[in-house]
Amino acid sequence: MSSVVAALRPATGLDWAARAGSLEWDCWHTTEHIGDCLMSFAGQLVARPQERYVRFMANADKDASPAEVLEFAEAGGRILAATVRTSGPDVRAYHPSGRADPEGFAAMGCAETLLHGDDIAQGLGLAIDPPRDVCTRVLTRLFPEAAQELAGVDPWTALRWSTGRIELPGRPRLTEWRWRGAPLSE
Q1: CB of 151 within 8 A of CB of 140?
Q2: What are 28-75's pLDDT values in tens digits?
Q3: pTM for this entry
Q4: 100 and which of 89, 95, 125, 161 could share a cystine (Cβ 3.0–4.6 Å)?
Q5: DSSP 174
Q6: Angle in degrees, CA 73, 77, 83, rounded to 5
Q7: Which residue in 6, 30, 3 sits closest to 19, CA to CA?
């Protein structure tokens, strides 16, 4: 989260009504989506429902500035991180990609933040350069087969390809994809 926030914070004076990359959302709403996802993942770990999402939405105030909606997303990341740290490894909760453990929700939170952070950066004419070790861990946890097949590819590039964001030489852009939320051992 910190690398995305650091990349986007200097751009809070720009127009966040700009479309976020190839998404239908603008930069402001994409940032709000990140915050909602991260807080929702934390809610899943706390409530531990087995067959549905916890019934709440986390939203930024409609009049929040770009800096404030970015702060909202950062708060979501910190809440998820704290929840992951305090959840035992045996905790499982619903996610459509499989009953996820804390590690799975942490990886999904990182993926949401990195990928949508990149969408926002594109919309603002910027680029993000996430830590490759984080990209490797997220790719290995959520896309284990792709991590093996793409072992020689830059992990940020491999993560973007695995989520249908880009093409790779000899590999078309994916139009459908699904990450693995359940632990790799299950």
Answers
A1: no
A2: 999 999 999 999 999 999 999 999 999 989 999 999 999 999 999 999
A3: 0.96
A4: 95
A5: P
A6: 140
A7: 30
Give start and end residues of each alpha helix (H) in the chain: 2-8, 27-47, 66-86, 102-123, 132-142, 144-149, 155-162
Please give the Cα distance from 118 to 136 (Å, whole number). 16
**Number of neighbours of residue 183 by Cβ within 10 angstroms:** 16
User: In whole angstroms, how far apart are CA 121 and each of 18, 39, 168?
Assistant: 10, 22, 21
Give the model's pLDDT for residue 140: 97
Q: Is the pLDDT of residue 1 over 90?
A: no
Q: Give the side-chain half-sphere CA count within 13 A for 147.
A: 16
pLDDT (tens digit per residue) in 98-151? 999 999 999 999 999 999 999 999 999 999 999 999 999 999 999 999 999 999
b/e sequence 140-170, b meaning 16+ C-beta within 10 Å:
bbbbeebbeebeebebbbbbbbbbebeeeee
Distance CA 57, CA 182 (A): 23
- In whole angstroms, give the CA distance from residue 82 to residue 171: 38
* Contact by Cβ (8 Å): 113, 38: yes
